[in-house]
Amino acid sequence: MKSIAIIGAGVGGLVTGNLLARKGYKVTIFESHINPGGYTAGFRRNGFYFEAGTISFEASFRVFKMLKDIGVYDKLTFKNHQYRFISKDYDYTPRTYDEFKNGLMNAYPKQINTLKKYFREVDALYRPMAAYMSGTKIGKYKAIAGLALLYFKYRTQTITEFTSKYFEKGTQLFRTLSNLGYPEMSVLFIGGALYSLFEDYWTVKEGFQAFADILAEKFKQNNGTLRLNCPVEKIIVKNGTAVGVQCKGEQIAADKVIAACDYKQTFLSLLESGTVSESMLEKIRNTAVSEGVCSIYLGLSLSNEELLELMKATVLMYDDSGHYINLQESVDDPAYFEKASFSIYVVSAKCATLAPEGKSSVMIQIVSSYHWMNNWCGEDRSRYLDLKNKVMDTILKRLETLFPGINNAIEFKDMATPRTYERYTKNTDGATSAWSWNLKNRFYNKVMGANVDTPVKNLYIGSCWAIQIGGLPGAINAANACVKKIG
Ligand SMILES: Cc1cc2nc3c(=O)[nH]c(=O)nc-3n(C[C@H](O)[C@H](O)[C@H](O)COP(=O)(O)OP(=O)(O)OC[C@H]3O[C@@H](n4cnc5c(N)ncnc54)[C@H](O)[C@@H]3O)c2cc1C
What we know:
The protein is an alpha/beta fold and 487 residues long. The protein is built from 17 helices and 19 strands.
């Protein structure tokens, strides 16, 4: 029986582990954290449950199929979000893409012609992505045909550049429409982002930690070994072939090693220098990663019903500042968090047991750079904590403007920065979705396919980093591709 060592118990590692253990391989997953899940996890503080990072996933056809293949689909319940959009110009809760478009046209009657032209172009990008994400074979072929035509036109245009063709930077319409995805995202993905938002964004009623725990449990039932609190410090390579891993000083032999974790870490610190070419290392060092996020976790004394009465949706997209901001250009701007838009998510709305009785848990998320204010004050812990508290106060002040009195209901508060995400998961710069979404600076030639091979024999990539644009479905894609390679 061949032995497999997997580094990381995120979705990528857990899915790969399950599929290989079921085939009879002797699989061990090494996870540095005390719980499985990586970015797809959750935690409780003072009785309030919060998602660690991701609050939803798209491409449900892939996620649900994976859960059915592993035999755990019926152990979880999936729910959609409802979105409310608020700015100084509008306040509405669209249920569909068409309602979203119509709402903007109603809010900006003077700009109706420009909006119509803008949406005509976006519709052309929406249709093939919607077909692809429907998960059917016909949809896939339709998408390939549709996107092939659009690929060369749009691949190097970011969503920010595309939006600025129609709307002046700094206007509310520019902010709203350029915020539909990551600012550096290629506009090719805008159709997918919109389709996900209104048709295919799912959350787990029991919380994402339950999602990870169920996969971990099934893996153990299939005789897999899950070693938590076990950071791998080295991938052992002999004559160009991976032959095991080193964890807490112990060397563990394996026939195959799967790095289901951060790509940069794998090549720049887990492999000994000289294992791969200097040119490859240079490329790895220089390729940009996706944007980070700050998450503020709030435990409130308001019940779910009271909070939802205020929110009128489970997720609220809030944009009150009216400034043009650019994430990259704002890395030295101390006022960034006074201007950035943010989302508010009622975590406990999906299941009352996620908060103490009569109370609720909420997450506020803001796209943020790891490099803001000199990497959040570098290694100086007390200045870092000070900065973090100031950011939290800034956002809570804005929340108070939106819902006067809400700050009096806060019983618990904490915040994760891109540094926190990096510390807990070892993902470089707290990258939320692997490599940069900007296709001008991509790591792989293929945009959507899984790239699991490495120059080291018997070493594979089993995390979302095998896909240019990462994501939870990306991690599943990587897991499937690893299993296919190993056979
Ligand atoms: C705030 C936020 C929002 C997101 N929103 C979405 C979304 O809407 N849709 C979507 O599809 N995706 C979203 N994502 C991304 C998605 O969560 C990830 O792409 C996906 O969960 C990645 O899974 P993974 O297994 O590839 O990697 P990870 O989740 O990063 O798992 C890697 C695991 O490896 C472990 N590890 C690392 N190094 C070592 C080591 N040396 N030894 C042992 N263990 C190690 C880590 O602790 C971690 O558990 C979001 C992420 C964040 C942070």
